[in-house]
Amino acid sequence: MLYKLSLVKSGDRFIERIFHESMKDLGKFYGITWTTNTPKIVFLKDRKSIDLLRAKKTEPWLVGWADDRMRIVFVLDKKELERYSSHTYSKDYYHSLIKHELSHLFYKILSAGKQGPVWLSEGVAIYTSGQNKLKIKPSKFKNFLSFYNRGGSGVYEESGFVVEILVKRFGKNKLLKLIKSLEDVSNEKQFNKLFQKIYKFQISYKSISLQGSW
Ligand SMILES: [Zn+2]
Fold first, then answer.
1. CA of residue 105 to ligand 1 center, whole Å
2. How far apart are the CA of 65 and the centre of ligand 1, in A?
3. Rounded Cα–Cα distance for residues 155 and 147 (Å)
């Protein structure tokens, strides 16, 4: 398959502002000063381009992803967002979408390339990009743990709030320690042990609900 990629010449100031603000803010959160070989953003013009790059028929909610090896964030162009996805465009939505994908790249640097539980990886990206503000708080936690190895639209419902609770109750450093320690984790059992070691309680729907006094 052949692709044509071109440089956006006249800078889009809105996008540039999002990029710089996000890099600064995420750098502060993750404790990473990222100045060389910084991420690149590639805008895709339609669903077909997304499907070609993902090598499958994608669902309408998928509008962006991050390739940590290439350090590239792929996003559906803002002008085409409503035409080729199930999302409604707003400046806040698009800002947090790009920040979310950039956050995945910082996470992977900290975890030395490991993803760990999908709910954790997505939860951290959602929390750090401010997407919780655009979401409805779940009345109780009941599905995030089912997203350990698999993704899907359901993982975005609770995971951001789980991470918010962890940060608000126990501080950012424990979360960063958890992400850093993923390097030695290969399965859910090992992750649960690591979580227990860092947080001094077992991860479950009940324990997270209690911590959040949900
Ligand atoms: Zn994500």
1. 10
2. 7
3. 6
Residues recorded for the chain? 214
Q: Which distant-in-sequence residues (6+ apart) come within 8 Å of 134 by Cβ? A: 92, 93, 96
User: Which residues, including other chains, have CB under 8 Å from residue 44's CB and lie 6 or more apart?
Assistant: 50, 53, 74, 75, 76, 77, 80
Q: How far is the CA of 101 from the centre of ligand 1 (A)?
A: 6
Q: Please state the domain extents for the chain.
A: 9-110, 112-214
Tell me, in angstroms, the distance from the centre of ligand 1 to residue 189's CA. 23
d(CA 78, CA 59) in angstroms, rounded, equals 17
Q: Which CATH class is domain 9-110?
A: alpha beta
Give the tens place of pLDDT for each residue, 88-128.
Answer: 999 999 999 999 999 999 999 999 999 999 999 999 999 99
Q: What is the pTM of this model?
A: 0.95
Residue-by-residue DSSP string for 153-201 = TTHHHHHHHHHHHHHHHH-HHHHHHHHHHGGG--SHHHHHHHHHHHHSS
